[in-house]
Amino acid sequence: MASITTDPTLFADPEGFERAAELMASAGRITVLTGAGVSTDSGIPDFRGPQGVWTKDPGAEALSDFDTYMGDVTVRRQVWLARRSHQAWSAEPNAAHRALADLAGTGRLRALITQNIDGLHQRGGTPADEVIEVHGTLLWVRCMRCALRTPAEEVLARLDEESDPKCLRCGGIQKSDTISFGQRLDSEVIERAAQAARECDVFVAVGTSLSVHPVAGLCDVAMMARASLVVVNAEPTPYDDFASAVLHDPIGDVVPALVERVRDAAGI
Known about the structure:
single chain, 34% helix, alpha/beta, three-stranded antiparallel beta sheet, 9 strands, elongated
């Protein structure tokens, strides 16, 4: 890792940073939940922040509705074009992604649960089997009829000829293998995430508004299992009052600093 400062006086709340660092350094098992705020330094805008996609363009949120997508070919065409131009295709993992991969390298990461669909945690070095993608992934496309999964690049390559590319096996409607509003979460994935929340000493929520359930409720699951909660987010969240530490510092600075403390404790 590059040189990282862990001096608590350089953060907005030195006591809060020190408390979070001590909790994580002494933990045998750490579960991390990440949201869109982790990827903003990679050039991928969040949704609900001051400069968020839906904040700046409320109409864009309608394109994430499952029933609308399935029933309106015009919407599907818009969504496919948006997918092809998504920032994830050119984005690179940032300091927070790399730091969380280093956390996995300490052997103390129980799981990395992410609401992000960009695949940057895996590209940043976190082993794929330790990443739980609760909202799916942009990197694959799923047929809504036969469930065939196809690499997104293969489907996007057809857009010049087909504005609404159908499944090559059954002709069904395809969509990114992501969870839209009105679409059920994968129960097995959610149970994996809940188990990871139950089986940790510290639950760290990073870059997420903690306003979307049931994923936000993983904080409750962790705390009910007597885990400490650490929240790292630019804006206040509904769970701040219940957290052992709340940090509002830039994620790209504070996450590497926290992980460095864990690495020091692990002798790495």
